[in-house]
């Protein structure tokens, strides 16, 4: 019984870290949403989960092994934005610029 209870708590904690309101909105400089951008949670000691933005450019803030402190956002053809603090108002707005060779 204790093992089942422990598994239930783990499942609940995992779902609360994955599910939730929009935490990140990714757009291009013209404000158009970017679908399929990778949003990776980073803690001081580990990279965490990677989620992808939907067609509206929205994603939740992904978890990391330790509490998520930053996120990295990348998409092929765009410049990566590194170490964005999650300690700010939500949704966190991230603008990706096209790489010079992609313009």
Overview of the structural elements:
The structure is a single chain. The protein is built from 1 helix and 7 strands. By secondary structure, the protein is an alpha+beta fold. The protein has one domain: Immunoglobulin-like. The strands form 2 sheets. Strands 3-2-5-6 form a 4-stranded antiparallel sheet, with no helix packed on it. It is globular, with a radius of gyration of 15 Å.
The mean pLDDT is 85
Strand content: 25-35%
Q: Quaternary arrangement of the chains shown?
A: single chain
Q: How many domain units? A: 1
Sheet having the most strands: 4 strands, antiparallel
List strands and helices in order, with pairings.
Blueprint: H1 2-18, E1 24-27, E2 38-42, E3 47-52, E4 58-59, E5 70-74, E6 81-85, E7 92-95
Parallel strand pairs: 1-7
Antiparallel strand pairs: 1-4, 2-3, 2-5, 5-6
What's this entry about, in short?
The protein has one helix at residues 2-18, and strands at 24-27, 38-42, 47-52, 58-59, 70-74, 81-85, 92-95. The chain has 103 residues and is an alpha+beta fold. The strands form 2 sheets. The protein has a 4-stranded antiparallel β-sheet, with no helix packed on it. The protein has a 3-stranded mixed β-sheet with strand order 4-1-7, with no helix packed on it.
